Protein 1
Amino acid sequence: MELVQQVSKCSCRTAIWTRMVPIALLMIIVLSTPVLGEGERGFYVICGDPVDTVPVGTALHEMFFTIRSTSEIADSVDVIIEGLLPLGWSANYCQESTGICYSMDARLPLPAGSDEGFRVDFYPRLDFPGTGSIILEFRSVLEPQMRGYCTITCSTLPSLPDVGLTVDCPPEVQTVTGPFGLSEFYVPIQSTGNDPDNLVVKLDKSEIPADWFAKFCLVSSGECFLDEATLPFSPGTDDEIRVDIDTGNDPGWADVRIHFYSESVPAFSRRCFFRVYDRGPETAGVPNVFNKELPLRITPNPMQVHAELSFYLETSGLVRADIFTPDGRKIRSLGGNVEPTGWSHLNWDGCDHMGRRAPAGVYLIKLETPTAISSAKILMAR
């Protein structure tokens, strides 16, 4: 059985992550990219068997993968390693042409049109069964958006759990233009195995600007997480992960990656890629929602039960605050009274206009006073 996963700079439409033990071949393909005046750049990562089972007491087990350059010019590849190893295990990867082994990230030369063979060495614990994995990411130095992945697992368990998940990555590019700078992506997930499993979800925010904000939420429960979570999945369960990206209206772009893998068999893994562009707030017909003349403080933020909005009025007058969901739906209005000059406060109890508790997530607060319009974002945490 062969599973071919296609990864490129421009599309990552769908992926199937399913129960396949044993599996014959996993190939991750990074498409070549023409660069004006410099020829094509690209490489393949041929991962080989992602799961091997060996007897307890095995001192060393070797697994193999190949990086194949399809580039017309020389490049280098940054190899990023993440170990998911039980206590007492260790692992490294070795470049076969040089015999040099690495247990940490490394930058390796990749000559044009070359094949570079690599070996992964697992050193299992001799006296106790377990399962260990390493996750390898490969990034072109000349084209950092060009990447490939291998997840390689060695097990000394008598048998592996019957687990499986289908992760359907959505289109990756979204342009954000407007006064709020919020973008949402939904990732459907289905449990297809016969045994219960835990899904480990990790959000990679290393390449977003410092002023941007990202998190992910489990849609069924409304729980949100900033970086990492382990979520239980029963056989036959369907759910969605929502990825929220808040640009703060700072123009720019970012790549956001979210990684899913089985806690039982980490070789069953999938990454989704999202690229977000923010052109900044449009000026026509849009108020100055980030008016620096009207300080607006929200405490606490993130909130759980209630939050206080504090602001300073230079002139007394009518004040109102409207609370919106990221898609622009108004759920609550606060105030509507004349407030005196100086510091004023409004309180939100976390409920909508019907008195129902608002689900966890990002909300937008638009404050209108006699002299200015301002806005802010608040995170509802549960």
Protein 2
Amino acid sequence: MRVLSGSRTPPAGFTLIEVIIAIIVGSIVGVVFFVYMGEQLTHSSDPINIARNEGVAEMWMERILSDYVQEMNAATYTTALATIYARNYNAGIYNMPASVTLTRTYVTYDAGGNEVAVGGGGTSNNLKVTVRAAGYALTAILTAERVTSGDPVTYY
């Protein structure tokens, strides 16, 4: 009888079925990861575009408010709202881009506090200014707050 002098070790490595299962599971996980990351990568610039568009709207609103304050502090403060209403921000030194829309409306408020637009070319002491840039809007109500030249000036 023969005696074997060493112990026999089982074969090492993966079987073919284990390799196939690993490839299938890896590809399923890869597809899920790719779909999720692909969506995130295509929308990764959205926060930058949102901030840019909001910044553009805010920049134009600040320009209008600056003009309003300058008009209110001038000797012609009684016509400040009419000047802002009539000013062409699309041409000249302003050159507002076509992607920005500016809406100016004279408004009043009824006894219930509801806003009522003044129609028919009328005016009021309140001018509602709305600046929109790529879906983001800023609104300000400009008022004829100085009624005499002795009123304090406004700083902006």
